[in-house]
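User:
Note these tokens:
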Amino acid sequence: MSRSESRSRIVAVCRSCESVYVSEQKADGTIRPIGVSEECTCGDGDFRRITSTGDSGPSAARSSD
């Protein structure tokens, strides 16, 4: 890979089994998980990026002081 090729680290999910991976997305949109083969452990290689919806996730529990 040349240094001029752009990659972004993202979170992606397998479209087949819904396993979640830290992944790299190339400038052409190709998504590949980091630390495993180019395909998911289920054998599928089709991933979609998980995007933030502005929700910060579950609310933290609050103490009752």
In short: Strands lie at 7-14, 20-26, 31-33, 47-49. The radius of gyration is 16 Å.
